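Page 42, continued from yesterday. The earlier attempt failed because a stray header line got pasted into the input along with the sequence. Redoing it now with the clean sequence only.
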Amino acid sequence: MRKLITGILSAGILVGSALAGETINGAGATFPYPVYAAWAYMYYKETGIKLNYQSIGSGGGVRQIKNRTVDFGASDAPLKPEKLDEYKLYQFPAIIGGVVPVVNIPSVKAGQLKLDSDAVCRIYLGKIKYWDNPHIKELNPNLKLPHKEIQVVHRSDGSGTTAIFTTYLAGACPEWKEKVGAGKAVKWPVGIGGKGNEGVANYVKRLRYSIGYVEFAYAKQNRLKYTLLKNPAGNFVAPSIETFKAAGATANFDPKKHFYLWMVNAPGKNAWPIAGASFILEAREKPQVNKKVNKFFKWAFEKGDQIAIRLDYVPLPKELKEKIYKYWKDHGIYPDN
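This time it went through. Structure tokens are written below.
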């Protein structure tokens, strides 16, 4: 699957080229880019319709659909109903995934290092500066942690991945909520910034003793060392399809609120604490364009689940897909055929 995705991503220009035929233009979140690229590749093979999706970050996706320069925007940070009314947009989720802390500690393997929200919070506040800090050692009594300075990596662009990560920290760490807050862009107390999930992944790969946060697919594709996290139920869990599903099991997406919902710090005993959905944004005054876009996503919902799973994303539950279809029908944007 890794070779297939490498081919798909390198073929992204072809999939979205201006050759003869119909083209859908979208832009936004880097979080779902691997699965959107894979869906686009298969959709083009089946229908001849191209998808040009620019992975520019959630902030850019909101900006572009707000300015009506694309057919759809994509954001991992859902917009509140009042913002959707202000910008005259529709919104629905397309895929579920997880944001994971990743580290580059030569002596530590993937899934060995245990962290809790307090440790992650204090690392990103600059209060825990070395890997052999007593709190981290207490969480990892069987690991030999080096006395090396932690190199903190964060996003430099407006990012839904950052919004999910900082919303997790704000919900679990009062000091973070008070001093930094949550959002697509925050004033980082420490660290260096990388553009996109790709940029953060590349920094962590290159910088020894670093920590960053990326969408799980990027961690897997770049063979980064993910950490375990202690969830609100008190259990250390690994990022996986199962723990993302466990987080999604308690999510109640409400079409009347345009599906506005955060999934972080879910209460399930096996739930990954930094899970989130990625959302699609569409202009309300363009029903025909939206039908074309939604035809692609309906195809993805019906035929793309196995692709999503192979890329370590969680497909939407059947009940949620049915809610989205009704939402489209209620707003006159259900695909014609």
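Notes: The chain is about 40% helix and 20% strand.
Reminder to self: strip header lines before submitting.
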